[in-house]
Amino acid sequence: MVEVGQSAPDFTLKSHQGTEVSLSQFKGDKVVVLSWHVLSFTGG
Questions:
Q1: Could you tell me the end-to-end alpha-carbon distance of the chain, in angstroms, rounded to an integer?
Q2: Angle at 38 between CA 36 and CA 43, to 5 degrees
Q3: What span, in angstroms and rounded, lies between the C-alpha atoms of 29 and 3?
Q4: pTM, whole model, 2 decimals?
Q5: Which phi and psi angles does 33 have, rounded to 5°?
Q6: What radius of gyration do the chain's Cα atoms show?
Q7: What is the per-residue pLDDT across 1-44, written as a single tens digit (0 to 9) for each?
Q8: Strand, coil or helix: what is 22?
Q9: Cα–Cα distance measured from residue 43 to residue 26, given in angstroms and rounded to the nearest whole number
Q10: Where are the beta strands (DSSP E) in the chain?
Q11: Which among 3, 11, 20, 26 is least buried, having the fewest CB atoms inside 10 angstroms?
């Protein structure tokens, strides 16, 4: 578990456009907010 104030571990995921994006791409350049919306686009 990442504690408050710790850096998040690097990871790579596919964007909604299908391209791969790594968290490390933004280090020192941009502020990043991670947000998950479980079942947001499903009928369930």
A1: 29
A2: 145
A3: 22
A4: 0.57
A5: -115, 125
A6: 13
A7: 889 888 889 999 898 889 999 999 988 888 888 777 777 777 66
A8: strand
A9: 33
A10: 12-14, 20-22
A11: 3
